[in-house]
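Weekly sync, protein design subgroup
Attendees: M.S., D.O., the rotation student, P.L. (late)

Item 1: inverse folding check
M.S. brought a backbone from last month's batch and wanted to see whether the design step gives back something sensible before we order anything. D.O. pointed out we never logged the input encoding, so this time it goes straight into the notes. Structure tokens as presented (144 positions):
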């Protein structure tokens, strides 16, 4: 079984309510479109992203960054994006209704097998990866 990790459409950051911020650390300003950390001095847009748009109790949103100059959406098939390399990732597995059915923390080389094990469960429709420390959405993971 293969999986897909795809960045957010950078146009999402260009809607109302976004703030322009300058990256002051690397790592520290992970772009959700390119799935790479912004460079120090680079302009990023901070905005609220709804990562689980269900009507139920697990609806979720949080502040995320997108590079202001981001034009492409990163796509990773059976590979982890650079922003996962330096972070502990919270993997949250949801069913079709958007209800949480599994959760696990993983870092480094343990992330890939944790994703595969979670997606092997038939009730898991998608995984939302979050940066464990800040709790912010990192990327969605689906079967490919």
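Designed sequence read out in the meeting:
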């Amino acid at each position: 079984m293969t999986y897909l990790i795809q960045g957010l459409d950078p146009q999402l950051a260009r809607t109302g309510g976004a703030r322009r911020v300058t990256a002051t650390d690397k790592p520290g300003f992970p772009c959700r479109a390119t799935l790479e950390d912004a460079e120090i001095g680079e302009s990023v847009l901070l905005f609220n992203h709804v990562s689980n748009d269900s009507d139920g109790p697990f609806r979720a949103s949080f502040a995320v960054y997108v590079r202001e100059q981001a034009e492409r959406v990163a796509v990773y098939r059976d590979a982890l994006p650079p922003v996962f390399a330096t972070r502990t990732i919270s993997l949250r597995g949801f069913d079709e209704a958007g209800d949480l059915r599994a959760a696990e923390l993983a870092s480094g080389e343990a992330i890939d097998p944790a994703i595969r094990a979670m997606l092997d469960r038939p009730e898991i429709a998608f995984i939302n990866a979050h940066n464990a420390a800040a709790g912010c959405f990192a990327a969605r993971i689906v079967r490919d």
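Discussion: Strands lie at 3-6, 19-22, 43-52, 60-67, 75-77, 88-94, 100-107, 126-131, 137-143. The chain has a mean pLDDT of 97.
Action: P.L. to compare against the previous round before Friday.
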